[in-house]
Amino acid sequence: MSFLICLRLRRVDQRSDGSARGCTAGEFCTGNATAGGGTYTSTFDVPLTEDEVRRGFTLNSAVTVDSHPSNATLATCTSVTQVGDCRDLFNVTVALFDAANTVVEKFERQVELDFSGLRTFDFTDTVQENSFSVLTGEFELFGVDAGFHSGFFGPKFSEPSITFTHDQIVEQQILDQIVQNDVIAAAPPVQINLPLLRLTYLHRQQRPLSLLPLPRRLRPSRPSSGDCAYSD
What we know:
single chain, mainly beta, Jelly Rolls, four-stranded antiparallel beta sheet, 12 strands
């Protein structure tokens, strides 16, 4: 049996320089190559028990990206800091930490924007069976207006989210079912008392039927033994 847990991340409603100027409410705007782009970060507690963590789980990270119209026609960058506009880039990083704040898992991706407008991206990663305890995490988005050196026209982020899916072992339910089956098997058969039925038998007697002799000219040859006709 699988369970899905959705984690709410910190609201994105600011520009990468810390202000909301130039951004639509609910968006995080990133800067140009000279400014070093922009980074959005949100920390969280992994909403699983130690046993659930150790059995392994799947995490899905998602974000909606608003891409500048120029990205639909620009070429791929040879360098993020090149002179001359090129396609913007964004990175998604999810890191998981143990109780000692040591990174135990890290998933990273980089995406080149070759479209105009909004697009939602989903990324799925799997944590295998492990010996971890309770975990914390960090979700990071980095974007840059590659090849451009002024303003905040890099990728705009909105609606970031992380969901965790884990399998719950239903051992107790299975044991309960086994016990229930054993009880049923060990139970004595149920005795059902039916009312006494009085049956009346009708004896039907069969007897030979005497036939009148046929006229001589129509009388058939003598029948063989056992070819007698009977009637009720």
